[in-house]
């Protein structure tokens, strides 16, 4: 009786390498080697199992590039020629090894093998798709497709581009294999929310993800990875089983590393002298793998023993038994837990079996035979067959994931390949424009548009970024990426000018002939049209990477206060931001509509990498809102972290962008020194250039932006940050309040609040503290906040003998912040870089005397000896002098605090929100402004009638 099932899934893919213009392109060997060493041995094994009536089931994906190459007459002929050379080499090897008892049997083995492979290829008339279709009709295989040219979906910019890749895959599969696929392979298992509705459009029923996609799913899948889940769009997701994959994939404990298996890296293409092997490797004199490998792995080190096929087959049988025994235990335990038959999903790259792991096809054959003849409790099954068993699969939202390094996307976005994405994203946006421009163009322009789509899709293949990361054949990957982008640009220019060069077009159509049925409509935005005013109120879409309760710096509080005060002024405000565990993804806060997008946490120091994901998720969330009927008048972007999403919304929907620059990378680092800083600086510049208006919070920031970017004309507006006195009202009288646990009774508190980052100047504060404590030993220095410099500054305080005089509190709640402001005798903000200094405003609003550095935006906030005191930036003696002045002159301190509190009204959020709204309205067209006036008049008229009645 069956206890559970195993869904073995092989993903077959190679990059599209087809060079009719040149023979003996080295990279074409990828196809020839895969056909000879992997695909034909697997297909022959499948047919043998079928002839023996072994009840095997397996799902096999054929990516569109691979399927097209297998069906291409030019590449079929070149593969057949490659096979003939191998047969000739095999015959020569038999002659060369005569009399050698160690290697002659192996040469005979290879001769027999390559003769059988060649005969099989001739028997199927060089078209390997034919036997696969027969096996699918017999119910043994489930053939399915992979997305487009194999792009890494999380890094595509536009939904339309993803749709084009999916539609191309389904159409290509049906055209080459005779039926529409039910499943699809997401390249690199790269899932991103928002893909599943596009799969549903294409009639797809299932796909695979890596196991950690289920770990982060919402809600947690009740059956873990032993059952698929349904996405909100109703598409089934099967998660890779980590236990079964580790037994095969692991470089440490996986079966392919067994010492009796064939060694991959020792090949006669490198071992034999040139005179012997030269005619059978690359004609340019490049040594390559031939497939003749005479050694077993043996062990670590250079020494290798001759390969023994009998030993290897016995190991494959033993490993198949072990693998099946482990699956039996697994499904028994899972069935007890689930109450129904589980499925173990085991996806692998097909090329592992035969190419990298020579004995892989034998392992699979013996595994299927054992399950069949033992009438095993574990049965092979295809994903579609398992889906037909039940109707009540759990529904879960999945997060972005991949099966790449760390389960994230840093294989396809790191220093060696990150340059490709700005280029590809611009091409995506241009392609979307082209399909709308060329809707009624001539047939020749349409042909150029179709070919532009092909070139874009070929440039987006994940293979090129992977090769750059892996540092193999990098020159070829670079060449292909640049080549396809250059061809796209040239074709796009022809479409835009409606002047097509027919000779050039014909040449590139011959070179890059993938997807003959490509439709430009796949790239079209279905909702692209003139914006409609669906609400009476003007509407702003704010993009911010942090928003309460996620508070890293002052940006979070700024967006919170600005958005709720805009609502009070009659605006409709939607804030799209990052999710926070335990908080809803959609909620209304103070009249502001909050939408929190799921973004995976950054791995290690990959913050820049995480920002890329953030923008992808923000953009997807905004598209969902627009598709649902929301109409926005303006996008308000807050800092470089949302740059890509803001520019994407402008390009895709024609929305004007206002940007608030809260700080610059140049200012934070006192220059641009590293590659990362240069990348961030470039994103800042791009965002400013795309913005219709740019808001900064101080005159210093106005100067910093103009000097730092040297753009000819930036429409800058200086609007300060604000403070809400209501938020800072103290719920107690300080006379009744104990300073515990921050200080002891009788200690005078000196307070710093802020992020513990270098530019906040806490090291200067500690140097000043040492001097002040000598004169005022009753002071206690409270440093409130968190950040990467905390440990270093705590150690500095201890070295300086200030251990008992300082307290690093870590993050403090709003309530504790207000309490500290009420208790503190002096607040100090010694930043050497501070775009504005909202914490100084909060201290002034709370009635606490302040000492600040005479720098940045703090210059605008504090007037020396009127609303506070200023010290020279980075100057500890100057800072100590100002602090001592307030400690030793309490009447002066009270006067400064009172004056500051009286003048804080100029930083009132209602006034600031009004100035910001005025900036938005500058961007409305005269026609839109007229409609606004009519709506406002209608609203007032209706209001008057209601009051009259």
TrEMBL record:
Chain ranges of the 1,4-alpha-glucan branching enzyme C-terminal domain: 424-523
Entry coiled-coil feature ranges: none
InterPro entries: 57_glycoside_trans_central (IPR037090), BE_C (IPR015293), Branching_enz_MT3115-like (IPR040042), Glyco_hydro/deAcase_b/a-brl (IPR011330), Glyco_hydro_38_N_sf (IPR027291), Glyco_hydro_57/38_cen_sf (IPR028995), Glyco_hydro_57_N (IPR004300), Glyco_trans_1 (IPR001296)
Top enzyme class: transferase
Span of domain Glycosyl transferase family: 743-902
EC number per UniProt: 2.4.1.18
Glycoside hydrolase family 57 N-terminal domain sequence ranges: 7-391
Gene Ontology MF terms in the entry: 1,4-alpha-glucan branching enzyme activity
Pfam families on file: BE_C, Glyco_hydro_57, Glyco_transf_4, Glycos_transf_1
Record-annotated Glycosyltransferase subfamily 4-like N-terminal domain positions: 552-725
Keywords annotated in UniProt: Carbohydrate metabolism, Glycosyltransferase, Transferase
Family per record: Belongs to the glycosyl hydrolase 57 family.
The name this protein goes by in its record: 1,4-alpha-glucan branching enzyme
Protein's organism: Desmospora profundinema
